[in-house]
Amino acid sequence: MNRSPNISPNIRHDALHRTEPHDTLTADVVVADVVVVGARCAGAATAMLLAERGHDVLVVDRATFPSDTLSTHAIARTGVVQLDRWGLLDRIVESGAPAIRDVVFHSGDASVHRAVKERFGRDFVIAPRRTVLDQILVDAAATAGARVRTGVTIEGVRRADDGRVRGVYGRTGIDPIEVSARVVVGADGLRSRIARSVGAELTRVGPDSGTTQYTYVAGEWPAMEYFLGDGTFGGIFPTHGGEACIWVCTDTADADVARRRHGTPDAMFDALLHDALPELADRLRGGTRTAPVRGMRQLPNQFRRPVGDGWALVGDAGYHRDAVTGHGISDAFRDAELLADALDRALRGDTDEAVALAGYHAARDAMAAEIFDITCELSQFPPAARFAELQKALGRAIDAHAAELAARPRPAPCVAA
Ligand SMILES: Cc1cc2nc3c(=O)[nH]c(=O)nc-3n(C[C@H](O)[C@H](O)[C@H](O)COP(=O)(O)OP(=O)(O)OC[C@H]3O[C@@H](n4cnc5c(N)ncnc54)[C@H](O)[C@@H]3O)c2cc1C
Predict the structure, then answer these.
(1) Which CATH class is domain 77-129+207-296?
(2) CB of 213 within 8 A of CB of 307?
(3) Which residues are near ligand 1 (CB < 6 Å)?
(4) If you take atom 48 of ligand 1, which residue's CA is the nearest one?
(5) Right CATH number for 11-69+130-203+304-380 from 3.40.50.620, 3.10.20.340, 3.30.200.20, 3.50.50.60?
(6) Tens of pLDDT, residues 238-297
């Protein structure tokens, strides 16, 4: 809810300091073409692509960086293509994220090995820690010219008298802040404050029955591995520092039963692996667990209306899918580029804003649809044969999607050589 009409007249372009006692909620106003709320996969990428094209972008996040977030982090070919097109893939490999060239799929007694095929000039996928990936994205946004402000919590949007969104308000520490912008972008994740503040309704809802849990284990991890059990799917994502992210997806009801029976998340995780994925449990013997088990239950599958008068949503804020397909980071990268293209045209006056944003909405929904449908079905754990069939369909959809992204005009590299 708006707590004061619009914004104060103290306009500054590069400050977030209040000039009045904070209980008056009168703050300096920071002005930007676009304010992006949230600075991870969706927000930093959107800010980078807009700043690269000369727009004045402020990107804020309540977090500071580097910092972790609740997520495993395999990046599908689709996301790898985007990072490569943006000039960031080599930087991620240089950070120590292993280039993963071998993938193994275990189901029952069978194990299928395959090499990652060379496509679009790259023959690997990656699973960088979010502490590293998100910092690289934030740095790239800043290098491209975006103003990045961290430790800033946005509390809602401001509207003009005609209802158009014209900025955001929030706090940096105890100090109030105000941002006036032509467009507000909510890249603030699944529980988006911006989505709530603008009243962005859900337009398509699937099941929310899946749970994903994960930990880290130090050891020898030569390949990305997937293990399919009865109602359970797990795996190994090799990452920085000789560790692997070890994860397991289940039905939430099964996870809840296991949690009640075993008490702690770690004990439940071990029991799930032991009972449903014994081959994965065996692979972990001798490794050293380096982190407690974390996870999320009842992962939603949903689309929100992502555009309106003066605002847009990108990434999980506008579209969320269960983690079973590991495609959220790639979705965020795709939508960041679709939105940046649309906003660029609108801000330049080449296209009417409503038309440009409607185009983003339509393109997002069309490009996300196939993998959304596959994700919804996988997240309900169909019988093993159908699950394996859907995995193959997912691979084909990712390849087609990656080809579509690779064929788009390549933006200028965002990182200086
Ligand atoms: C358990 C789990 C496993 C997953 N595994 C994978 C995987 O293997 N591969 C994959 O591709 N995807 C995976 N995902 C999905 C992936 O994590 C998300 O799709 C991705 O992080 C979305 O990025 P985003 O930038 O939209 O949102 P987020 O990464 O959620 O970032 C949102 C940012 O907004 C900031 N923010 C929120 N509210 C405010 C506010 N009011 N003011 C200021 N800042 C705010 C937050 O601090 C945060 O930094 C997984 C998700 C989960 C939950």
Answers:
(1) alpha beta
(2) no
(3) 37-43, 60-63, 69-75, 152-154, 187-189, 193, 212, 295-296, 315-317, 323, 326-330, 332
(4) 38
(5) 3.50.50.60
(6) 999 999 999 999 999 999 999 999 999 999 999 999 999 999 999 999 899 999 999 999
